[in-house]
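Ticket 4471: requesting a sanity check on a complex prediction with iron/sulfur cluster. Repro inputs:
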Amino acid sequence: MNREGLRAALLEAGAAAVGFATAGPVSEDEDLRLRGWLASEHHAGMAWMERHADLRRNLDNVLPGTKTVISLAFPYAPERERPSDLPYLSRYAYGTDYHEAIRSLLTVVLEQTNISSSCRICIDSAPVSERFWAIRAGIGYRGDNGALIVPGIGPEVFLAEILTTIEFEPDSPSNAECLHCGACRRACPTGALQPDSTIDCRRCISYLTIEHSGPWTDPDAIAAMHTVAGRNSLLGCDRCVTACPLRNDTSSPYTWNPPLPAMLALTPSDIPAQQSEFKRRFAHTALLRPGLQNLLRNIANLDLRSK
Ligand code: SF4
Ligand code: SF4
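Returned structure tokens:
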């Protein structure tokens, strides 16, 4: 399989950008950025980020003998929005759980191209510095909002990687920069965006409503979840990406994973109190990530007076 044939197959499957990078250690800058973020405790309760920090330096820890990283971006800007009078549900959660959807697409391509035995698919599932590799593979550059910005599409993209023991000629890394316009910082209701484009998760509504487990006890977390934006979040917060002027929904149709009608109209009363019913009704959606108890915590925090 040659590089351009594989790229064409991946684009055909729904990726909006596909780039190839030669595997190797992550740069010192990238390593320092991660170390600084961890030292500042901005990873909040994600202790696994700390445990996996050393593993991220070397792709051989994920797939021994990795020669190439194939970095992919899948746009997720939805064609239809939820009504604004419903509690906020992050736009990434409108369709089928993207981990499942993207893995299925990529699995088919790797099987059709007969290279699956030399590859490992990573979608938030392995210690890989995904933005570093995406920049190295030339598919985008880092925004001040911490997201990868794909030229012509913007920051609303899911990232995935295929690590492979096959050697492919690399693409040129991206050396572009975002506009540094400050719109993302101004849009963030909690001051979570840091000067080095990282996020202080202790005060990020996205982290606090999706990844954080149990009650919010940290004073920064409580303050963030008591903002108007925090009180309106059923799941997630996209303000730092939707504010970005580099966002271009029209160029990124969400055809590979269309919105589910049930998610577009989801209200707190649609969340059942029974675990078994919750799992049945929301199988294959992003709601399973926080789980029922944490969703009920988010619902209890909603300001429903004006809904
Ligand atoms: S997701 Fe929301 S709270 Fe988190 S950094 Fe972006 S704008 Fe701020
Ligand atoms: S909003 Fe402006 S500063 Fe923030 S990522 Fe987009 S272009 Fe960069």
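Notes from triage: The radius of gyration is 19 Å. Leaving this open until the requester confirms.
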